[in-house]
Amino acid sequence: MDRLLLKRHPGFALSYLLLEMAALHTATMMPADYQTIDGEMVSYSIGEAALRNGSAVLVGGLLVGVLPLVAEVEKV
User: Fold this and answer.
1) What residue intervals traverse the membrane (predicted)?
2) Segments making up each domain of the chain, as ranges
3) Dihedral through CA 42, CA 43, CA 44, CA 50, nearest 10?
4) Which long-range CB contacts under 8 A does 52-59 form with residues at least 24 apart?
């Protein structure tokens, strides 16, 4: 982490370090589940399958559409 501080302008070093740490944390996090418009939580794998096959879309961060069955997702 010290090397990150040395590469930056001293006035912005801490800001850049915090931004880089936040980006690293975001990149290593597991993907979150999706929420439907009625408040139901849908697992990431089912939501991704619906988005990929075109039976669902994201509207304002909410999953809207027809979701595949769990058995269909596990086959793929």
Assistant:
1) 12-30, 50-71
2) 1-30, 31-76
3) -60
4) 58/34
- DSSP readout, 11-67? TTHHHHHHHHHHHHHHHHSPPPPEEBTTS-EE-HHHHHHHHHHTSEEEETTEEEEPP
Report helix, strand or coil for 38.
coil
Q: What tens-digit pLDDT sequence spans the chain (76 residues)? A: 555 555 656 667 777 777 887 777 665 656 788 999 888 999 888 898 899 999 999 998 899 998 887 766 666 5
Structure tokens at 19: 């931004």
Cα distance between residue 29 and residue 62, in whole Å: 20
pTM of the complete model beyond 0.70: no
Q: CA–CA separation, 49 vs 13, rounded Å?
A: 41
